[in-house]
Amino acid sequence: MKFKTKALLTAGFMTLASLGAGTAQAVDLTMYYPVAVGGPVTKVIDDMVQQFHKENPDIKVESVYAGNYTDTMTKAMTAMKGGQPPQLSVLFSTDLFTLMDEKAIVPIDEIPGADKEWLNSFYPAFMENGRVEGKTWSIPFQRSTIVLYYNKDAFKEAGLDPEKPPTTWAEMAEMSKKLVKKDASGNVSRWGVEIPSTGYGYWMLQALAIENGQKLMNEAGNQVSFNAPKTVEALQYWVDLAAKEGVMPKGAVEWGTLRTDFLEGKTAMMWHTTGNLTAVKEAAKFNFGVAMLPAKERRGSPTGGGNFYVFKSASPEQQQAAVKFIKWMTAPERAADWSIKTGYVAVTPAAYETEVMKNYVKDFPQALVARDQLEHAVAELSVHENGRIYKIMNDAIQSALTGAQTPQEALDGAQKQSERFLSRYK
Question: How many CA within 13 A on the CB side of residue 155?
């Protein structure tokens, strides 16, 4: 889903023009921001930055909504090479190696104002993608895990306990069979489960792989395990949900329209980002539940979403202003408010200790599922040549789901292609 809205938001930050100088000069910041889910994300960001302006009347922030994550990364890199890069941006937490290879960003822990207490206040699972070689390169903000959304009314109708979602792969397949609904002509009017395969197929396969006990990459970002037996088994399970069990549509399941399918009752369960939680809460005409992803060998989900990055080309004053802005945006009260309004996970434990969050989760416990799943979470797939590797993986997944190749053939090909690109980083 692409948003072409460009919002200019002004705020300010007072800085001395030089040591001993008495004149103040505003610091201008341009922030590229991605929108990857439904709901009021741009309005929430607009409101937050306007509030920042009231409290810090000397920083000018131009907030550019540049499309989805891929579009935003492309535009940020194009702007950088054109000599007009943003000073900060929210990009995939997994874009780190690419941004480092491009020498685009600066370690945030080297910028004045980024103190250790603040840097250590975030959930460790969210910091895994942001720390490399002993340095902190990015700060969590728009973060998520994959969760299972399920229609409690459909569970009741199928004779299933609406308070007991599937906890294992086997249970999900069996429950899905009972949840499939067909019309008089035998056409499926409601699927048992849908896992999206377009856009972020690699993310879903990583979830299945870690649940099967298989990590997909090493910490150095130069080795992948796409055709490991347990990865192949994970993709085979995904394929079988459609081809063998008949509980999921064959072929591609669209990321962008899956939430609508769920809300319209076309699928009883869906795997999706917790970033859609508030949108589902506000639009669902039925009782719904949220659960951790089912397990094979273990529970697990990769983390997901975006982090704040500060660009190397920004002046020292701009870098300090960017850190001040990021600290403000991730403060406990605002992290809690952001989570409530969007569904993304609040990035610090302190956010869940605020009164507003305590009151919210008391009435809506579904909001705690993604946070609780952090205990079982792993860093999202992040390697050098990330864009190329994602495309290779997504193409392989589509090839398997459409039946063009077996999971083994598709992942053997993906491994071979990926090794060719990653070999230069070893």
Answer: 18
Question: Exposed, middle or buried: residue 25 (CB in 10 Å: 0-12, 13-18, 19+)?
Answer: middle
* Whether pLDDT at 19 is above 70: no
Rounded Cα–Cα distance for residues 191 and 261 (Å): 10
Q: How many residues in total does the chain contain?
A: 426
**Pair of tokens at residue 287:** 């009782």
Look at residue 24 in the predicted model and tell me its pLDDT: 55
Q: Which residues contact 26 (CB under 8 A, 6 or more apart)?
A: 12, 13, 14, 58, 59, 60
Q: What is the DSSP track for 324-389?
A: HHHHHHTSHHHHHHHHHHH-PBPSSGGGGGSHHHHHHHHH-GGGGHHHHGGGG-BPPP--TTHHHH
Residue type, 335: A
CA 304 to chain centre: 3
Taking only the tens place, the pLDDT of each residue in 311-335 is 999 999 999 999 999 999 999 999 9
pLDDT tens digit string along 414-425?
999 999 999 999
Integer CA distances (angstroms), 49 to 6, 98, 142, 336, in order: 14, 28, 15, 16
CA dihedral angle for residue 271, residue 275, residue 280, residue 282, rounded to 10 degrees: 170
Q: Report d(CA 178, CA 155) in Å as an integer.
A: 9
Domains (range + CATH), the chain: 6-143+304-371 (3.40.190.10), 145-303+379-425 (3.40.190.10)
At residue 293, what is the residue type? L
Contact partners, residue 310, CB within 8 Å, separation at least 6: 87, 88, 105, 106, 108, 111, 319, 322, 323, 326
